[in-house]
Amino acid sequence: MKIRTELNFPGDLKEEPIICNLCKKFAIILNILEASFSTEIGWAILILEGTEEDLKEAFEYLKNTGVQIKDIQTITG
Hints:
The protein is of the alpha+beta class. The protein has two helices and four strands.
């Protein structure tokens, strides 16, 4: 299963390796399409690929760390 999503990172998370942890903690493949980070806020557009269960756990991790998930689209084909 492939999912395209946009994430917003609050400034207080700028020192945390959140994107790196997604690959280490969960059996997913991650592709960063576009991203921008400053001292105030950050955002990233990602494609995540993995099983439905692994993706569900990854999104739960993101929510629990304070990352805002803006847009989720399933990629078919």
